[in-house]
Amino acid sequence: MRVFVPCDSSALSVGADEVAEAIAEEARKRGTPVEIVRNGSRGLLWLEPLVEVETAKGRVGYGPVTVADVPELFAAGFLDAADHRLGIGMVESHPYFAGQERLCFARVGLGDPISIEHYQANGGLRGLRNALAMAGADVVKAITDSGLRGRGGAAFPTGIKWNTVLQTAADQKYVVCNADEGDSGTFSDRMIMEGDPHVLIEGMAIAGIATGATKGYIYLRSEYPDAERALNAAILRAEAHGVLGANVLGSGRRFDLEVRRGAGAYICGEETSLLESLEGKRGMVRFKPPVPASSGLFGKPTVLNNVITFASVPIILDRGATFYRDYGMGRSRGTLPIQLTGNIKRGGLVEKAFGITLRELLYDYGGGSASGRPIKAVQVGGPLGAYVPESQFDLPFDYEAFAGVGAMVGHGGIVVFDDTADMAKLARYAMEFCAIESCGKCTPCRIGSTRGVEVIDRIIDGRDRGAQVALLRELCDTMLHGSLCALGGMTPYPVLSALKYFPEDFGLPRETLPAAA
Amino acid sequence: MPDDVNVAVEAAIDRHRSVAGGLLPLLHDIQDRLGYVPQSAIPDIARALNLSRAEVHGVVSFYHHFRQSPPGRHVLQVCRAEACQSMGAESLLNALRTQLGIDLHGTTADGAVTLEPVYCLGNCACAPSVMIDGRVRGRVSANAAAALVSELQGA
Ligand SMILES: Cc1cc2nc3c(=O)[nH]c(=O)nc-3n(C[C@H](O)[C@H](O)[C@H](O)COP(=O)(O)O)c2cc1C
Ligand code: SF4
Ligand code: FES
Questions:
Q1: A2-98: CATH topology
Q2: Is the Cβ pair B24, A223 closer than 8 Å?
């Protein structure tokens, strides 16, 4: 009898280890043989710890399970898929799961994430095998034709980057994975690294094979110790299995991979700052050009992509560019793993083709706010993303549609706020965060953000409000235009959107709202 | 340098001195063992990596993760980022400050607990979140947090 208890760190954060132990203990007491598999999370995170029991018809789920529930579950006969108040039925038929289009997350939650046998048995390594039989230029062409755009935030076409690296002659090239995942409201990178690390390894190996890079680094934020353990364990297996090393799957080609830990600096998610950090320096943003693809790590051509970008590559090489680009809308092709977070009833991971609306996500999937109060605003795309009010919830997930209203899809994180949220405080926080995380290279970002906090404080306190609001707008304008990177350059987005859509939170009447923001 | 500090620093230098871009892994190695990066280690690190002391110090001070003084026996990191804010992180943090009698980056007088801010733990669907000695806890209610802290202060 196989029972699945996730080892994903979100599941662990709400007691999955303790539940797994309690199940083992209760099974021992009852003399019932039970094999406990520690799987990745299915992404139905409000149900974690979600315990699944394997039956002839499929896997039946119970959640959220506490240690105290375990004896009762045994008594009720959960091992025979019996009904129970925590029962959710067949997990894969659950509407939250069944409606998804899981390409990137196809395997996450199925089984032991570290096992390469499990990986292969579920479609893994087919993309890499295909890539090894192709010319590098054809692999790059497949990525270009798939329409895949970077999932880290900037949405730059991945194939164009890879092509630059391929075309640039050098004695050494690198593949670097941006696993800094600093945006609040995001965890899809983490779920891949903990729940299916081999898909990231395979995607990076394909990038190396395609462009002629022989060494890869995963730059992982220090806040993710569980992901670090999972990646290192998976890399060892991949080496033992010949997926990594001097002779990738017997091809005679080399690709080595190493995890490097960041050190709690949001700015190190910016690609050039990340490279500085990988080189052992302060994470100061570099001027561009040159772009990393032509002169990146240690001055060498470097493929630099987000975790989800790399994790989307194997299925493109396995099923073909057309298969992938048939999902999506407009210039946003394929699927996006969207993260529903914050004040939401059913928080979790929803992978869907581009085109799904915010409203469908927030209400059909998310079930509204956790508090049961009206949703006031959502922030999409991390701390530099605009606050989106209810009037825009019919916006489809599409890079251009979001950009059209001054918002950002970014890494696909949605943070939900109910009507108790104070948007002036959130605007203040955006400035404070920028001040804390600024790399210090440009004055508008370094000084402007600190001034921004002071100005918003005065607005909140009602000191000379009209003049201070004008000052805040001016300050935002300076940051927008005078910053080298998006930290200083986009912090105005959450600030100005909060001011535009929720002036009353700043003590301003709605009707005197100036049109421009 | 006291002996244990010396041993940890020399061992870390040996492991990482010839690694490309090895300064961060080296500093992590030291902090993983000692809980902080002692000021006294900087000259040796600088010499081994052929950097100036100012450069090494510049790196240590740039990154929020690196501590320049020893933490308490337990480190409690409270997520301050937006998703956790939407679920009451700010009042959680204020309650913890009051209970511990310290501010952010402070350590209780008995040396039991250091309180630090953190900006997202990737647990945003189970907010609010904290990390205790490297382990994430989610859906942390005010009561649960108070109990956790009492536990840490007792241990
Ligand atoms: C302040 C700042 C923070 C960023 N943080 C991240 C991050 O945590 N992860 C990420 O993949 N990209 C991040 N980016 C975007 C990267 O600079 C870069 O565009 C991306 O890693 C490229 O990979 P992609 O094309 O696959 O998206 C950040 C950018 C900025 C300006
Ligand atoms: S905008 Fe801020 S973070 Fe970006 S380079 Fe300038 S100072 Fe550094
Ligand atoms: S915002 Fe707190 S865990 Fe992400």
A1: Glutaredoxin (3.40.30)
A2: no
Distance CA B101, CA B107 (A): 9
Q: Report CA(A382)–ligand 2 centroid distance (Å).
A: 17
List the CATH code of the domain at B74-154. Answer: 3.40.30.10
Residue B113 to residues A188, A442, B29, B67, B81, Cα–Cα distance (Å): 31, 36, 22, 14, 21
Sign (positive/negative) of CA torsion A384, A186, A13, A307? negative
* 3-class secondary-structure state, position A457: helix
Nearest to A481 by CA among A444, A452, A448: A444
Domain limits, CATH 3.40.30.10, in chain B: 74-154
> Searching chain B, which residue's CA lies closest to the CA of residue A189?
B122
Residue A150: pLDDT over 90: yes
Cite the residue boundaries of each domain of chain A with CATH code 1.20.1440.230: 423-512
For residue A13, the chain B residue with the least C-alpha distance is B137
Helix (H, G, I), strand (E, B) or coil at B5: helix
DSSP code of residue A360: I
How would DSSP label each residue in A39-53?
Answer: ----S-GGG-S-EEE
Over the stretch A243-265, which tens digit does the pLDDT of each residue have? Answer: 999 999 999 999 999 999 999 99
Pocket of ligand 2 (CB under 6 A): A 267, 285, 438-442, 445-446, 483-485, 487-489
Q: Which fold has domain A328-418?
A: Ubiquitin-like (UB roll) (3.10.20)
CATH architecture of A423-512: Up-down Bundle (1.20)
| A514 pLDDT tier (thresholds 50, 70, 90) | low
Instruction: State the smallest CA–CA distance between residue B24 and chain A in angstroms.
Output: 5
Helices (H), A297-349: 307-319, 321-325
For residue A422, the tally of other CB atoms under 10 A from its CB is 18
Query: Which CATH architecture fits A116-325?
Result: 3-Layer(aba) Sandwich (3.40)
Question: In angstroms, what is the C-alpha Rg of chain B?
Answer: 17
Q: What is the pLDDT of residues A407-456, one digit of tens each?
A: 999 999 999 999 999 999 999 999 999 999 999 999 999 999 999 999 99
User: B-chain residues within 8 Å CB-CB of A266?
Assistant: 119
The interface predicted TM-score (ipTM) is: 0.98
Are the Cβ atoms of B125 and A46 closer than 8 angstroms?
Answer: yes
Mean of all residue pLDDT scores within chain A? 97
